[in-house]
């Protein structure tokens, strides 16, 4: 069965150890989530001079990254930099200098959910022209592969 990306949402949580039981706030206005997540091993060249072929070994793993971009959803709250709560939490996570990852939840259009841990490496805005809306972009770097939501009975 194919799953459409239409209807996907992303939510930001806290730094709680258990991502599944954390509390989340949806990041509103998201237009695109591009990138990959999972587990990819780096390559180590273990070849020696007498080898006829490159001896490639598995190295440290990368859990992937995601670019989240969309339209800023403004609030009247100047204490939150006039952003909706989810976008404001994403901005705060980008400004957090600690190395502790934040919990994220991606809810797919079919209702299935992935839980992920990521460090946020930026929250930027663009103003565009008179035919655009104000946009934001944020980069998430995952620290481990996703955990799917347990199915009932699991």
Which characteristics define this entry?
154 residues, eight-stranded antiparallel β-sheet, Factor Xa Inhibitor, mainly beta
What percentage of residues falls in helices of 4 or more residues? under 10%
C-alpha Rg (nearest Å)? 19 Å
Instruction: Supply the helix-strand structural class.
Output: mainly beta
CATH class: Few Secondary Structures
Strand content: 35-45%
Biggest beta sheet attributes:
8 strands, antiparallel
Large-scale geometry: globular
- Count of spatially separate domains: 1
Count all strands and give the number: 8
The ordered string of helix (H) and strand (E) elements is EEEEHEEEE
CATH architecture: Irregular
**Parts with pLDDT < 50 across at least 5 consecutive residues:** none
Report the end-to-end length measured between terminal Cα atoms: 22 Å
Tally of DSSP helical segments: 1
The CATH topology, please? Factor Xa Inhibitor
Mean pLDDT comes to: 90
Account of the 3D structure:
With 154 residues, the chain is mainly beta. It has 1 helix and 8 strands; from the N terminus they run ββββαββββ. Strands 1, 2, 3, 4, 5, 6, 7 and 8 form an 8-stranded antiparallel sheet that branches. The longest helix has 11 residues, at 85-95. It is globular. The mean pLDDT is 90.
How is this structure best summarized?
The chain has one helix at residues 85-95, and strands at 9-12, 25-26, 30-45, 56-71, 102-107, 113-126, 135-142, 147-148. It has 154 residues and is mainly β. The protein has a single domain, classed as Irregular (Factor Xa Inhibitor), CATH 4.10.410.
